[in-house]
Amino acid sequence: MVECYIEDIGQYVGQEVKLKGWVYNLRSSGKIRFIVFRDGTGTIQVVMVKSELPEEVFEQHKELTQESSIIVTGIVSEHPRQKGTYELQLTDLEIVQICEDYPITKKEHTTGFLMGHRHLWLRSSRQYKIMRIRNEILMAFRQYFYENGFILIDTPLLTGSIGETAATLFETQYFDLGKAYLAQTGQLYLEAACMAHGKVYCLGPTFRAEKSKTRRHLTEFWMLEAEVAYLEHEGNLDLQEDMVCCVVSRVLENCTDQLEELGRDLAPLRNVQKPFYRIDYNEAVEKLQAAGSNIEWGHDLGGEDETILTNMYDRPVFVSNYPREAKAFYMKRNPDDPRTVLCADLLAPEGYGEIIGGSQREDNYDYLVEEIKRNDLPLDVYGWYLDLRKYGSVPHSGFGLGIERTVGWICGLPHVRETIPFARMLYKLYP
Amino acid sequence: MVECYIEDIGQYVGQEVKLKGWVYNLRSSGKIRFIVFRDGTGTIQVVMVKSELPEEVFEQHKELTQESSIIVTGIVSEHPRQKGTYELQLTDLEIVQICEDYPITKKEHTTGFLMGHRHLWLRSSRQYKIMRIRNEILMAFRQYFYENGFILIDTPLLTGSIGETAATLFETQYFDLGKAYLAQTGQLYLEAACMAHGKVYCLGPTFRAEKSKTRRHLTEFWMLEAEVAYLEHEGNLDLQEDMVCCVVSRVLENCTDQLEELGRDLAPLRNVQKPFYRIDYNEAVEKLQAAGSNIEWGHDLGGEDETILTNMYDRPVFVSNYPREAKAFYMKRNPDDPRTVLCADLLAPEGYGEIIGGSQREDNYDYLVEEIKRNDLPLDVYGWYLDLRKYGSVPHSGFGLGIERTVGWICGLPHVRETIPFARMLYKLYP
Hints:
8-stranded mixed β-sheet; homodimer; elongated
């Protein structure tokens, strides 16, 4: 007899197979009893017919509970009306463990309770689908870069240098060498590597010890970063646009069912096509002020500003050339307006807001030293980074995309906490 | 005129193209001067013929230095005798930056010096090739799992629970919640996730605050981990064997040139075929003692033992069923010999030693509690982990593979420090 997974069961219609998994749900209607059975790759309805089973097998149904682990054997049949839907006519049932008092029941639970039981909540249908879409999104990003000749450079997490700002760092003692900081970004290392490989990327965890409690913040989140030598500001936007379009279209193709089951409206995602809107920071501020925001020139856009702004557009929008004070020290000054820098944030539509921050990098040694000092960062630990402006400096650009925000946007979720298997937030370190 | 990368230059034979990059090397022979030019995607010889260039362009060659950034324009030609090798007959040259006193020259440098200049050393030919092979290896692993229906579960790096042992943890203050520990493994989280998705994996950085100074140890290294519900010990070995064979064969196919240029003997890699050798710990100890090792039953194999042992085999070898005292608390006791556990290490040939550690996991609640206590680990933080043995516990197995050790083995390198872009070791936190 074949042992198989539910995802492959279509190959075995009419045959007897063995499946190993868990009880997802139970129903009974007199002489027929049902198990909604899951094995990790899918769910299937298992049918137990009293007249066709030994009594002791049929009666086992009464013992079963939600999440009991069981092994079922039966004949595969296709649903007479729903093509692609299969059932299993049970012939034998083996109980591995009866699950008692499973904490997550059909009643309403608070999010706090569910997050506290994240190790079990992952089994629930909605969380299950989100993780599968996340899996597809991450593979789509990686293949995009692999196929376009980018080299993966895994940047270090324990660092002596500070990525962007000293204010939000987790630190740890590093043997006799003093403090190490958990990376906020891999960018500085990618800049070094792009001088070796031309086009590089990384995709790993990053950390911000921010005391923010918003629907967009995690203390540990995954970031995709790319860096390209000899790439300038406009080309950087073209790259991001192409990447986002490719990834969204692949996810739409491979995860249609899961997105629909999550209730995601697919129309706005289908609309993610080139060209994206490209506006200037000045224009963004004017539009926001006209819409009632009290933003003033010189400040970064807040989460609410981004929501207002993206609701004005039916596709992602780049906002370019922010004031220097609002952005990180390494961004290249804008030759046309030295108060601003050659950067852009990409804001996702439907109110989602920033998913990418990018810029051309300052490639002039003297300007860069000036900015490090102006930001009160310790010049000595940036020695190696400054070397990149001494030894064959070239114009270069890159960006960072927040994976959880992107998963949240594509899945249509209100909060990033459901977009990552085990979220870390201000008050959340377990499980 | 076309702007292109060297990797695509074969499409432009006879045409004029523009390339942006750096001087790798310079040569002069009277009326012809050469630039070995690199752009990150490859290198090409640029030929400057005095009689065919304006004098001021020809004379620019004298200004050039190693690693100066330049933009070259010229006509592409194929080497008359070496098919697939191209040259550029220069028509114009633009200097972006002259590089002065580049620290890495052709003379011998100490490894300490080179590691201290890792941000520049990455540009050297050997390091360049290693990173490209690493890129291929990592994509091969990811595609293996993606194509075999495994779901990527990014496990947290900041954790309240301790992975394997409290002795080698980096810790950081986590707001008001006390200490967080940097993950030694994602396994415990994968065990939770495999009860939701059946087959899961993660591939991310892990940390060990070990004071080891060996050629096999980093404090921060990347680990591939996989976990499968309802998989038992022997099936776990089958999975690892299949994965390693697929990855090695793909790398051999896609990176032949780079491996050969590194001087890697390809014969032992071509020999990585099923079936791998499978021996018992007891047998390993007997063989080692016969070969002169002073290992005693009850201890883990040391690095040297692994070297001796793997030199006895021409393919990877699994060593199964180690004594319980030598291994982590979560491994399932061996029903045939309760002094040992259902685990295996996979040792790479040619003296490389352990690249994978795996086991069937203890699925019995009471036994697991006993082991947590016996290892002096704090029972309370494992509450969620123990839940997995209460709510539908099933047999399950998994393993962890060290990426840097695997890259070292495949590339044939003596030390792991060259296998990762920016190594972190006992005395190494910069650059």
